[in-house]
Amino acid sequence: MRVKKQEQNDEKKPSIIKRLKQRKEQKEIEEFKNKTELERVEERREEVLSKGRKFKYPLQYAKYRIVTLTIVISLVAIILFGGFLYLSLYKWQSTDSVLYRLTQLVPLHVASVDGERVRYSDYLMIYKSTITPIEQQQGKLGNDKDASSMMNHYKRMSLTEAENYAYALKLAAEYHLTVDKDEIDRALDKHRKIGGVERSEESFKKILEDNFGLSVKEYRRMLYLSLMKEKVSQQIDKEAIRVSETVQAGVKSGKSLKAIADELGEKVLYEETGGLVDKLNVDGGRAGIAMGLEAGQTSDRVMSSSGDGYYFVTLINKTESQVNYTSIKIPFLEFNKQVKQIREGGLVREMISLKDE
Fold this sequence. Notes:
Elements: H1 2-34, H2 37-91, H3 97-105, E1 109-113, E2 116-119, H4 120-138, H5 145-174, H6 181-192, H7 201-212, H8 216-236, H9 238-252, H10 257-264, E3 269-272, E4 277-278, H11 286-291, E5 302-303, E6 309-318, E7 322-331, H12 334-344, E8 348-350
Antiparallel strand pairs: 1-2, 1-8, 3-7, 4-7, 5-6, 6-7
Helix pairs in contact: 3-4, 4-5, 5-8, 6-8, 9-10
């Protein structure tokens, strides 16, 4: 009897649960009907967003890992590249053209002179302009002992010259000396017309590339350094000014350049052409100066076209295309004297090891 009653109770339970469930669904239906369209959209939106939140934090974590991994790979690449660049330039002393281009982009230095940094790109530019014409004549230098000795010789020369230019830049800053674009343009035009032949920009560009391995931009840099050194040498050499004034006084008193040179001894350099030479003779500009004089006339003090001293020129005789003259040169010595003192004082620090000449 009890078992039967229990079975009846079990049959009633599902019906009660079913009725409760139906009431809940009915209530939800009624609530849904009473909601506005905006509320229904908002409810659906919240439902979608809540499902999406389950994936938000895993995605953020993955993004963080990607950023971190990218930074680590970039740092490793930079370190490896920096190590390769250091070994190539400072240990192996490579002069490869690709590395040369990199030194033009990255401000690396190869030495310092009294605190003034020497650009690695300047050193390689000078070396390139020196070794290219040699290889044009003798062919590509090999790896034998003689070729290595020759390359080391020109590397030493190029580094010394680059250091001298760096010291000139330091002094130029102290004396507020500058070289502007117009000065470089004039020097470039003068070089284009060397030998009395005016070359086009394209042909001059080809000459620079074929004979010196330089672009016009690089050649302009060479001219800038050269002009700056000339200005500095002239500025600091008070002794050259004093000697030139002595020569000028001797000329005004009627003395010949030979007689003045004998009096001044090693302070000046006396030269004679010994006969007629071409008016376009490459001699620091003296032939051109002499062509503008009358026979027996002596010029005033003139700066050498190479910027390494002063000239006084006396014309002996000339034709339309040739000239015969004597001259006195007063070289600039102070700059080299100061550089020597700096080297002896240990103020030149080089980051590559090259044997001294």
